[in-house]
Specification:
The structure holds 2 protein chains of 2 kinds. By secondary structure, chain A is of the alpha/beta class. Chain A has one domain (18-43, 69-259): Glucose Oxidase, domain 1, CATH 3.50.30.50. Chain A is 20% helix and 26% strand. Chain A is globular. In chain B, the strands form 3 sheets. A 7-stranded parallel sheet of chain B has the order 10-9-8-11-12-13-14, sandwiched between helices. A 5-stranded mixed β-barrel of chain B has the order 3-4-5-7-6. Chain B has 11 helices and 14 strands. Classes of the chains: A alpha/beta, B alpha/beta. Chain A binds chain B through residues 29-30, 32-33, 35, 39, 41-42, 45, 47-50, 155-156, 158-162, and chain B through 203-207, 226, 228-232, 255, 264, 266-267, 270.
Amino acid sequence: MSASVLSDLVSGLAAGRIRVIDLTRTLAPELPQIVLPPELGQCWPFRIEEVSRYDERGPAWYWNNFSCGEHTGTHFDAPIHWVSGRDLPGNSVDTLPVEHLVAPACVVDCSAEAAADADFLLTVDFLRAWEARHGRIPPRAWVLMRTDWSKRTDPVAYQNFDESGQHTPGPDVEAVKFLVHERDVLGFGSEAIGTDAGQAAHFRPPYPCHYFMHGSGRYGLQCLTNLDRLPPTGAVLICPPLKIRQGSGSPLRVLALVAADAAGV
Amino acid sequence: MTAPLERPRRKNPVLRTRLPTTPPAARSRVALGLTAAAALGRFELQVCRDCGAVQYPPREACHACLSERLDWRAQDGAGELLAETVLHHGLELYYRERVPWRIGTVRLDCGPAVVAHLHGDCPAPPARVRVRACLDRAGQAALFAIPEKDTPSMADDRQLREMTCDPQHRKILVTDGKTALGQALVRAFVAAGAELVWVGHAEPWKRAPGLDALAALPQSTLVPLDLTDARSVENLAAAIGGKVDILVNNAEHHRTFGIEARRGIDAARAEMDVNYFGLLRLAQAFAPALRARGADGAASAAAWVNVLSIFALANFPPHGTYSASKAAAHSAAQCLRAEMRGSGVRVVNVFPGPIDDEWNQLLLPPKLAPGGLANAIVAALRSGVEDVYPGDVAQDWLARWRDNPKALEREVAG
C-alpha cells in the first residue's frame, strides 16, 4: 500500500501531473542581507571565491568556496533562533523532526495590499476572510504570505529603507498569535528579508513573528520567491535545512509540489 | 614660462600603448637615506657631527675630516645655478624616450655642488634656485631644481610632472563614497581638475547622506563596488580598470574593540575582509591595468593611494583589531609598491591619525577633519611623495616611532 502511494507520486511527477516549483532565490553576493545596527553582530552576506577553474590551480576541475550566515538568502529559521524558543526540545536544525520538512502550505495573497502599502500588516480579519474563500487553515501547515516582494529585483527597492528603517510587509501581533494558538501552523513564510514586518522592532513584543512562532516551536522561511505560482491551498513544501549542529537556521532550497491543474503557470 | 597643461587629446586607438620604462634605480644603502627623506617630501643631506661639513653625494665618511659620524639633516635647498645643459641623447631607455632633458649644476648654500634636474622656468645661470629631493618614476630620490620663486603653472613643467602624480586631467577612482572622507576626496579631486571621478559604493540599500549630492556633480559617477565581494571588484575593473589613472582606496571597516572587549572575531574578521583582503582583491583586479598604463601619455596611470592609519605603525589597543588590520594592509601595500615599481605607478601610503568620524567618537581631539585629509592626499599626489603622515597626531606618532618603537608601544598601552 505504502509502495503504491510513493509510486503514484513518482508517476505523477513523471507524467507532469505534479509540478515542482522552486521557491528559492539564487545565492549571489549582490543578494541583500538583513541589516542590523552596525554595532551589533552581523550575519555574513553570501560571498564566493573560485578555488580553481580548469587552470593552474586545478587543471581539470572548477569549484568555489563560499561563505554566508545561517540566515543568508532564502533560509529557514529554527525555534532556537529566538530567545523565546531557546529551551524547547528539538529546537535546532539538526534536532527538529524531519517529518516537519515535508508539509502542506496555505498561500495568503496580500500582493495588492503590499503594492499599495509597503508597511501592510496581515491581520486576523484578513486571515478569516481568506479562510472564508479557501477553507480553514489546517493544523501543521505552512502559512506563506504572498506579497510579490520578490519581484522587486532592485536591492534598494527590496530592502526599502528610509531614515525610519525598513518598510516591508509582515504579520501583526494578533495574526501571529492566531496562527500559532488557534490554527496550530507549522510555520510562517514570507518573500521579504524577514518573517516580521520591516517596522516590527516597534511592535509589542518586538518581532512578534519570531517571538511567538519560535517560542511555540514553529519555523520561519524568508526570502521566498515564486509564491505567485502556488495555489492558495494544496501545495506541499519540501524544505530541509542543512544539518548544522545546534544550527539556528540555514540557507536551503525550498521546493513546492503542486498539482498541475492547480499550478498558477 | 611653463605653458598650462592642456587637457590631453584623446589617444589614438590604433597605436600601441607604450610600455613604461623607469630611470636607473640602483642605489647604495647609504644613498637610500636620500630616498627615505624624499619619500616624506623632505630634502636631507648628511652632515658631519665632527666638522659640520655637508655631504653630497651620500657617503660613508666625511669628505672633509673622514669622520664616520654623519647624520641626515633637513636642508632648505637654496643655491646658485652654476651651469646648465640639455641632454639630447641617452643610453637609458627612460631618458632616451624623454629627451631633450634639462639638467644643471647647483652650488647649494650649505656647501656641496649637486647635479639636478632643471625646471623649465629656472633662468639661465647664474641664477638663484631651490633644490628639492623628489621621487622619480623608479621611486628613487632625484634632485630637482625649481625657480627661486613660484611661477604660474609651475607644476605643469614636463620634467617635473615625471616626478609627481598631479590629479589634474586624470581619471580617479575613490573606492568608498559613502564616508565623509570619501565625499571630501571626490570634491577635492574635482577641485584639483580631475577629468572624472568614479565613486564606489557598497550595499546601496543602506543610503548614505551626501551620496546623491556627489552623483549630481558633473565630473563624478557612482559605481557599485564592494571590496568584500571579489566579483564586484572584478566587474568594476572589467568596466573601467583600463581607464583609472589614480586609484584611492579609502574603503575601510572600523570597529573600536581590543581583543577582550568583543566576544568572538566577527568584527575583527570584517575589518580584515575590507582593510586587508579588500586591498588584495582590488590590487589583483586593478593593478595590472594601471601597470600597463604607466607611460600612457600626459594623463598616464600615475598612482595608487592607500588610506591606512597611524595605528598601522603601533597597535592602539582601544582600536586593537582595527590597528592589526591596518598593519596587515600596510604590509600588503609594501608588496604592491614593489610589484608596481617597474611601471612608474606610485603607491602612496597615507597614515592618518584618528579621523573625526563616527567610529572615533570617543577619542579626544585633535582629530583630522575629512576635508583636511582629502586635501593632504591631493597635495601628496601633486608633490609626488610616497608616505604621508597628515596631521598632528600622525606626525607625533611618527616622530616617537622613529625615535623608539618600543617606547611608543609602551606609551600607547597606557
